[in-house]
What we know:
The chain is α/β, with parallel strands linked by helices. It has helices at 19-28, 57-70, 90-99, 125-139; strands at residues 3-4, 33-39, 76-83, 104-107. Helix 2 links the parallel strand 2 (33-39) and strand 3. The protein is globular and about 50 Å long.
Amino acid sequence: MKYNYHSHTKWCRHGSGEIEDYILEAIKYNLDLFAITEHVPLESKNNTHFSMHLNEIAAFTLELDEMILKYKGKIKIYKGLECEYYPRRFDFFLELQSTYNYAFLILGNHFREDEKTSYFEKSSPELLLEYSNGLVDGMR
């Protein structure tokens, strides 16, 4: 069985292409299950370079739902969101998941909760420890 649980389209700003293009490629390569997992939109303006804007999630979800219906029977498509583990925003992420009927959240820590400091631009032992601890807490 072939699965892909982590795909980004143009909606998250560091992907490219239309949702349907990705689905057609998944079908072409005989994937059994395919998930679109754009970055969760944040209220902050700091992370909008890699995530959709909060006011776009309804339109994105509508387009994705239409594609899921269009390709029903050809491929199983799931809706997911990729999010950082930000404890103070976790309830917001769960609310988005519930409101828009997303199947799951996937963990992808890229930035500290200050949304300014990347874990990957300037690494240090302290930053790597914080990153690792955040991943473990997020998985819990």
